[in-house]
Amino acid sequence: MVHLLEAHGVRVFSLSRDCPEVDAFSFWDRGIPFVLLSTEKTAERGRFDAAHELGHLVLHGEEQMPHGPQAEAEAHRFAAAFLMPRADVLAHAPHGASTSWILQAKRRWKVAAMALAHRLHELGLTTEWQYRTHCVELGRLGYRKSEPRSGVARETSQVLGKVFTALRTEGTRPADVARELHLRPADLNDLIFGLVVTAQEGEGQRHGGGHNRPQLSVVR
To answer: Which of 8, 17, 133, 170 sits in a 20 to 30 Å window from 36, CA-based?
Structure first.
């Protein structure tokens, strides 16, 4: 999903860890679409969030600021249909699928188990009672907020990785970029999926010449 967004000109960044209450958001700026995604969620939920924000961008456009439950419901339905196309689900899903089938099949579409359970019900493949049973069983197994034994790799930016590789060959360090943007290196890394090693000032440690020596660490 992230690569698809970037291939169509969307600028994708990660959300700062200082915003744990925000899953994702999108906006247009002078004709350019932006999407920011939380890296604290499971890979499956991150993919759904990316599709959800794509829904906002294409359904509500640059002029209409999406807001309210109706806009959220529209983007949610868009994401479900985008990641789990009706024809594909109908071709592979049985009527009255079991919870164990959902846990196996979610790997095909790389979505959360709860999302697939909802999509099956939305397409009329499960009854209301079966859907409620799936929700109860998946919640008991820990799938309400997580995806145990997921196996799906978290998506990240290809474009940003290439940008910082090119900058490095030119002799431009991430710290230089952060300074130009008036950000701390760690704050910059929060916005670029933790793709680069940043330098953080040592805590009062002095090394030759009386200058603070940067302490290198990988910010995930």
So the answer is: 170
